[in-house]
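Justification of computing resources. Each target in the renewal requires a structure prediction run like the one illustrated here; the chain below, 325 residues long, is used simply to show the kind of job we budget for.
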Amino acid sequence: MDNIREWISDNLRYILLGLAMILVLAVAILGIKAITNIASGTSSEPKQTETEAQTGAADDTIVETNADNTSAGAELVQNDGKVLTTMTSYYSARTNGDTETLKKIDPGMDEQDQAGLTNSYVESYSNIRTYSKEGPSAGSYVVYVCYDGKVKDIDTLVPSLTQFYLKTNEDGSLYIADASADAQAQQFVEETRKTAEVQELIDTMAGKCEEAENADPALKEFMQQYGNSQSKPDDGTDTEQKTELVATDICNIRAEANTECEVYDTLSIGQTVTVIEQRDDGWTEIDYNGQSAFVSSEFLTTPEAAESEAEADYFAPAAADDGTV
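Resulting structure tokens:
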């Protein structure tokens, strides 16, 4: 033991020098490793897991949503399975006069609507496509339906566009609802219609409708005479010139000149009505299936003005759609 102590004492400076060299070497190795990590872009921070990378759970991206968590920037979904099935069934029922099916899909259909089926110019609806967006409440949808309508005695099909507001029944099926009965739904429908995507769809269908008219003189004459009206004119000999106005927006046809009364039906954009009297109180009295009815004057304009402003985005012969006024 004394010999070991004596050896350490004699060689202490060499031992310390060796330890110092080892320490310097260790520091150098750690430094080189740190430099290498920086150069390769690695970090001492924990890596994002594969699941986080796929779902984006680890980033700070914010998706803008509205109050009910519906994506504010959501795009129209083309031919959503549930929506397309519902609307195809609806138009098939209209073609076949299947009032039982129509009542299920459109609970608001009344006797006048049913009578209108047998008095419609449209023989059939084909090439049905839907463009939909989830609405402000769970299970609701704003839907734009494009189709080609076959008018009686005219070979050329009429490209048409109609808007609907759908809600979900307790059994999961969809039905046509009245957006005007819900302020939030009404606002959502109006804002959706103003989006660039919907306006592009409207313009596209308007162009196709115009092309069809220009290609078939018989169709053009029909459109000029009856516009978006589905009903045949009454038989008679009255040749008196009647004033006609065109709807500039989706609006209600009411029993009286106020917003609290019964709603008979709705007008689509571009639909033509026959005027009985233009009143000074902001309402226009019109002929609705042979009876007096009223429409807010702010939503009516002359055919000339409507054509020049290219506002008609629903094309005859359209099916009854949901009103938002």
